[in-house]
Structures are given as C-alpha cells and as structure tokens.
Write a structure and sequence with these properties.
It contains seven helices and eight strands. By secondary structure, the chain is an alpha+beta fold. It has one domain. It has an eight-stranded antiparallel β-sheet with strand order 7-6-5-4-1-3-2-8. α4 packs antiparallel against α6. The radius of gyration is 16 Å and the shape is globular.
C-alpha cells in the first residue's frame, strides 16, 4: 500500500492558542505541535483558512506520485509548489518540479529557513532523492516524521499513539 498524507501546517508558537483558535472556529479534527508549527488534520478547509490569520501550508504527499504544497497567508493562497514523479525524466529531475509561483528566497523568508537549505530540499538532484522529497522539507521546519508520514484526517482515528490530540 502506498502512503498518502495530507495535513495543514500552521505557523504557531503556542499549543493552547492554536487549540483555542481551532475550537472557536468549530474546526474538528486532530493536531500536534512543534516549537514553531502546528500540524492540523481536518476536512474543514475553508473554516481553517478563515480562522487562522498567519501562514498555512497545505501539505500533500503521495508516495508513488509526488509532493504538493499550497502556501496561504491570511486565507489567501500566495504560492504553490509541486514535485510530480510521473512528470520527471530520469535524466532531468527538474522536469517534474513546478515552483514558478514564488522565488526560493521569498519562500525561505516565509518559512524562516535559509535559502540554500530550502533550495536543496525542494530541488532534488536525482530521482531517488525526489522520491524522499518530503523528508528534507519537513526537517527544515523541524517537524518529526510521526507528524507527516502516513497522516491524514482519515488515518488519525486509527492511530495508536498520542502524537495527535483531538480538537
């Protein structure tokens, strides 16, 4: 079975503030936090985008297909990125990458990471590296694997760990 992961990554420094915003907006689902980010698993996309005033990244990863990121600020999409394995030529990995909506420098500024590190994470040099593209990107954000691998709203109820808290 292939991994399909989908989550929302919110800039958040306070676990209780994040929970409060989500609850006040009536958003159901699950969440987990790191020092700088909250990972939210919900099907209430519009409500989430309306309720949360800061940077939100919609993260999708399909193990045999690729990774897609949509970046929102104040509920408005400001950038998107995709790395689609089926579009890649083995001799030209860049052929499967679409990052034309935002510069690496601007995206690095939004995420609070270095431009060279982000460029390396989002521009794999080999097709093998592309298949693992989610790992260096999430590492830049300081998000551990248990918060992004095999996670989605549909998977959350079946997890047998305490990584995610029900909202």
């Amino acid at each position: 079975m292939s991994e399909f992961s989908e989550s929302w990554i919110l800039r958040s420094k306070n676990n209780e503030d994040t929970r409060s915003i989500l609850q006040k907006a009536g958003i159901g689902g699950y969440f987990a936090t790191t020092d700088d980010w909250a990972i939210v698993l919900t099907e209430q996309e519009r409500e989430l985008l309306r309720a949360f005033p800061d940077i939100i990244i919609r993260y999708n990863f399909a193990e045999n297909h690729g990774m897609w990121l949509n970046v929102f600020d104040g509920g408005t999409q400001i950038a998107e990125y995709s790395c689609e394995f089926e579009e890649m030529d083995e001799d030209d990995v860049a052929s499967g990458i679409n990052d034309s909506s935002i510069s690496v420098a601007d995206f690095a500024g939004i995420l609070g990471c270095s431009e060279p590190d982000l460029s390396n994470a989002l521009h794999p040099s080999t097709i093998e590296d592309a298949f693992e593209i989610n790992r260096p990107f999430m590492a830049l954000l300081g998000i551990p694997a248990e918060m992004y691998e095999w996670v989605s709203f549909n998977y959350a109820a079946d997890r047998d760990d305490d990584t995610f808290t029900k909202i």
